[in-house]
Amino acid sequence: MIVDFSSYQPGTRVTLFNDFGDGNMSQVMSFEIGQMAFRPFVLPDRLSDFETLSPAQAVVTRTFRFQTGDVNYERGWLIDGQPFSPTAIAAAAKLGTVEVWRLLADFHHPVHLHLNPFQVLSRGIGGPGAFDAGWKDTIDLRPSEEASIAIRFDGYAGKYVFHCHNLEHEDVSMMANFTTH
Ligand SMILES: [Cu+2]
């Protein structure tokens, strides 16, 4: 991320706010503007290069539905109709392989995977947005939206989770395990 502070005078304090936060929680961070650096800066045409994953590389396609449902006779949030269980394994991925995961949502669900980043292949009607480009660790699914992501599982064998990053959903109990081997 590149932030241009050149329009501020030295000594200015610039605070980044979260419009959805309450009270002190709305203040994310502050920047103290120092002395001007007279170093000409030109934004490069291309910030970085990365390998683009293709659905053709996928060894398996899995589907996960992020929906409301009952947890212990109360309303909760589920993945494929199931609340989180420490012992249940929703997917077992082979290290070094690429998988496509179709994610379906009934509501806003920012879906987050541990271990590896992923790329957004498709989203809703009209395809991925510019904001979907590059490597992601979370995709914010919108109500009734379906998206496909490509993940290359790599690096470490073990047991990991994926979950809705809305804590009110994750805690009751929109989370599941996957393993890599
Ligand atoms: Cu959610």
Question: How would you describe this structure to a colleague?
Answer:
With 181 residues, the protein is mainly beta. It folds into two domains: 32 residues, no CATH class; 123 residues, Cupredoxins -  blue copper proteins (Immunoglobulin-like). It is 2% helix and 44% strand. It is built from one helix and twelve strands; from the N terminus they run βββββββββββαβ. The strands form three sheets. It has a five-stranded mixed beta sheet, with no helix packed on it. The chain has a five-stranded mixed beta sheet with strand order 5-12-11-7-9. β3 and β4 form a beta hairpin. It starts with 12 loop residues before the first strand and ends with a strand.
| Helix residue percentage | under 10%
The number of strands is: 12
CATH class of the largest domain: Mainly Beta
Lateral strand order in the biggest sheet: 4-3-6-10-8
Low-confidence parts, pLDDT < 50 over ≥5 residues? none
- Overall pLDDT level: 94
Overall number of structural domains = 2
Q: Which class best fits the helix and strand makeup?
A: mainly beta
Query: N- to C-terminal separation?
Result: 34 Å
